[in-house]
Amino acid sequence: MFAAVLVASGVMVISSRNPVHSVLFLILAFFNAAGLFLLLGAEFLAMSLVIVYVGAVAVLFLFVVMMLDINTAELKDGILQYLPTGAVIGILLLVELVALFGSWGFAPDVEAIIQSQTPPIAQATNTEALGMLIYTKYVFLFQASGLILLVAMVGSILLTLRRREGVRHQKIADQVARTTETVKLHKVQTGRGI
Amino acid sequence: MITADLATVLPELLLALAGLGLLMFGVFHKGDATRVVSVLAILAFAAALLVMAKGDTQSITAFNGLFQVDRFTVFSKGLILLAAAFTTAMSVDFLEKEKIGRFEYPVLIVFSTLGMLTMVSAGDFLTLYMGLELQSLPLYVLAAYNRDNQRATEAGLKYFVLGALASGLLLYGISLVYGFAGTTQFSSLTLVLGATEGAAPSMGVIVGMVFILAGLAFKISAVPFHMWTPDVYEGAPTSVTAFFAVTPKIAAFTLLIRVLEGPFGQLGHQWQQVIVVIALLSMFVGSFGALGQNNIKRLLAYSSIGHVGFALVGLAAGTEMGIQGVLVYLAIYLFMNIGAFAIVMLMRRKGVAVEGVDDLAGLSKTHPALAYVMAGVMFSMAGIPPLAGFWGKFYVFMAAVQAGLWTLSIVGLLTSVVSAFYYLRVIKVMFMDEPKGEFDRHIGKPAKLVLVLSTAVIILFSIFPGPLLSSAKVAAQVLFPG
Fold first, then answer.
1. B35 CB contacts (<8 Å, ≥6 apart)?
2. Domain limits at B201?
3. Taking CA atoms, what residue in A is nearest to B9?
4. Residues B177 and B189 sit within 8 Å (Cβ to Cβ)
5. Mapping DSSP to helix (H, G, I), strand (E, B) and coil, where does residue B99 land?
6. DSSP label of B356
7. Tens-of-pLDDT digits for all 482 residues of chain B?
8. Distance from CA of A187 to the nearest CA of B (A)
9. Is beta strand B60-62 parallel, antiparallel or unpaired with respect to B67-69?
């Protein structure tokens, strides 16, 4: 059921007329994906999906969508033109993949290989198991992903930050340094004004 | 344990620290730090190269098999570092003249190069993916680097969307392979696939491999995943295009060789068909697509698609000799392209950059030296003996013929003749047409150095092919033990 709702809301994300509805369907899709993870017994992934994607990313999306005035009708104009080709390719791929999963084979002793990589499930909770692997065996990848995030940050700053002239900044040091000689204090009485 | 691992990744570690340090330096430096940071970045590349050359060249794996170093990786990393250093050196003057110099530029190049080194050394699909992303994210940003230019932002966006699609394909392929084998590590994958030898390999793993191939083919811009190349090359600032045309291609190509000859070595028959088709199409599109181009950057884009096709011929052969040919081809490709782009960067009249082929008209009268260098580069790209480009093609076609791929080599030779037409057209325009006015006289020192070097390599390779050939041979031998 989770999977069905996930796919349905995925379709709604791209087909609904109102961008705000799209984002709301996106949130629904995230929740369903989290549900799928829960069923698989990966509760940590499920929770982080809800917290990170629903809690932060989707809300940010919602704000951006509300602030920008996007004309979806204009964007939709091109869709009909490309729909037939896209649909044919998509359906072909789908049929192929379904056929593929129909005849899915595993390598011999695949279970033993998978088991050998993770600590036994009975001994460690999900989060513990992840932590044990990420910070030891996969520390290199952990650091590399840190660098990727840094690059993403530098890139977005580089592409959007503009130094504008004549912007008024608040200078806290100057404000604190003011004395009673430069500031005139008034005691304003109720209902009078200065 | 951890110290030994760190010693193995020393060149990468050095680049990572250099990147972080340069970022901080640039932020706190008063005024424009582009020049200083670029020089420091080049020094970092040189240092990484030195450390790597001094290091152990035995085959080592580190971080539980996530990372591997051997002669093959050392060879390709050497090429990548050289290319990165050269393109950074050339871009400093260009950025200053275009007035778009910002210190983040060299920093992003450092991080991107770090990503390439990581992916070349990948011993696991996870490392491969991490390296690939670390490599491509800075490239997306760099393509849109000149953000006030509409063409540049379009190029950046296009590259980003298509790149994300390619990453998706790659990841999907990796997940299929994992679904079959239960491991993403190259060495265990080799064992698993080797165990099923004789029996027909599972469909799942083949489809997964094809998806991975498609993802990587996008990165080397092989047909049919080449659509982005001309637009991005044209839209991005020329210094960025020079970087795009050389460094990521070498990295992705060596990665492709590593993946196909390593874990998927047992599936040789399956991937060979795919590679043959991609190579044929790339050679066709590369030579016929460039015929009508008048923008020199678009022309070089199609030419690079064609070159990828020629190099893929060597990979399709799948023999040690073929791989050696590919490595030699990539090295020569590096020097030809940086030479060509160094000249394209110098094409500016009264401070404005021009990019048309007909803007080169009469170059032999206004700037004879530049015209002769450009002619050398073009002849070499066309594959006219005795220049280096000829030998590059010679080795890959020899390997293909020995592997019995007759059709591929004949089509390759024919398209190579077609492509000679547009290279010769550039030369004709330079030497026979009337001058359209002079280019600005100023040629920076780095550009001179790069031009002299690339000319020297193009000419001297046929006299002293020894060092490059033998190191490529040693590198290729790693992939074919026993």
1. B92, B96, B101
2. 2-479
3. A140
4. yes
5. coil
6. B
7. 678 888 888 899 999 999 999 999 998 888 788 889 999 999 999 999 999 888 766 788 888 888 988 889 999 999 999 999 999 998 888 888 888 888 889 999 999 999 999 999 998 999 999 999 999 999 999 998 888 888 888 889 999 999 999 999 999 999 988 888 888 888 888 888 877 666 667 788 888 899 999 999 999 998 888 889 999 999 899 999 999 999 999 999 999 999 998 888 888 888 888 999 999 999 999 989 888 888 999 999 999 999 999 999 999 988 888 999 999 999 999 999 999 999 998 888 887 888 888 888 888 888 888 889 999 999 999 988 888 889 889 999 999 999 888 889 999 999 999 999 989 999 998 888 888 777 877 778 888 888 888 888 888 888 888 888 888 888 888 888 75
8. 45
9. antiparallel
Number of folded domains in chain B? 1
Closest CA to B113 of B248, B213, B266: B248
Searching chain A, which residue's CA lies closest to the CA of residue B67? A140
CA-nearest residue to B105 within chain A is A158
Token pair in block for residue B328: 């030699």
Q: Parse chain A into domains and list their residue ranges.
A: 108-185
> In this structure, what is the dihedral angle of CA atoms B424, B430, B431, B434, given to the nearest 10 degrees?
130
What is the ipTM for the molecules in this complex? 0.87
Nearest to A140 among B67, B107, B192 (CB): B67
Q: Which helix or strand (DSSP H or E) is residue B151 part of?
A: helix B150-181
Contact B16 A147 (CB under 8 A): yes
Smallest CA–CA distance, residue B113 to chain A, in Å, is 12
Give the C-alpha separation, B80 to B249, whole Å.
9
Q: Which residues in chain B are contacts of A105 at CB distance < 8 A?
A: 180, 202-204
Tell me the Cα Rg of chain B: 21
CA A17 to chain centre: 22
